Amino acid sequence: xxxxxxxxxxxxxxxxxxxxxxxxxxxxxxxxxxxxxxxxxxxxxxxxxxxxxxxxxxxxxxxxxxxxxxxxxxxxxxxxxxxxxxxxxxxxxxxxxxxxxxxxxxxxxxxxxxxxxxxxxxxxxxxxxxxxxxxxxxxxxxxxxxxxxxxxxxx
Length: 155
Hints:
It contains 2 helices and 7 strands, in the order H-E-E-E-E-H-E-E-E. By secondary structure, it is an alpha+beta fold. The two termini are about 25 Å apart.
């Protein structure tokens, strides 16, 4: 574990949520958002078009540091990131090892979108369902399914 204090746990959570606590960009500001993205050597992104007014295009990308990222297709801004609970224990080790020597059986490989189109219309309508299937990277031992029917509320 990272440490036993509330401050240690809070720092780990802030870092995992993207705060630049370790000043990765060496600009002296540790209160900004980290801009780095984990490696994606074996990853293939998936794009899902939710349609106008429902989220537009969203690009999903798994990274070896354990995050599944969702980016707005038009702007490239990150909408959200998800870490499977199985990979949460490795976050503390990654926080302590900013140069990246921690093994990376994070996420990788191909993403598969399974879309149930109940209304026959383009995009993801209220009656439709979209599931994203993905697995751990090299050396990993799990496959995950995430309901991404709502572009901003994965479950």
